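Supplementary Methods, section 5.1.

A reviewer requested that the exact input to the structure prediction be made available. We therefore reproduce it here, unchanged from the version used in the analyses.
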Amino acid sequence: MSQSALPVLQCPRPLPPPNGTVAISFDGVQSTAIFGCLSGFVLKGDSVQTCEAGQQWSGAPPTCKSKAREHLPVYTVLQF
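The structure derived from this sequence is encoded token-by-token as follows.
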């Protein structure tokens, strides 16, 4: 009994987000992109994306946001 060959899915190599990293793995059929951020930054978006038919990644490119900006206090301006 023969098995039908699965199509190999290939996508353009994604760029790492600014202040981030991307690692690509390939299991022989499908590519997976794993995104991360440098120290002091937090990833916004999908950290793992797979290569889909049509040579497209499964999500929008993630971004790395500064952790320092997330903890800035919010001030309310009061007018008298």
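The CA atoms of residues 51 and 57 lie 5 Å apart. These observations are discussed further in the main text.
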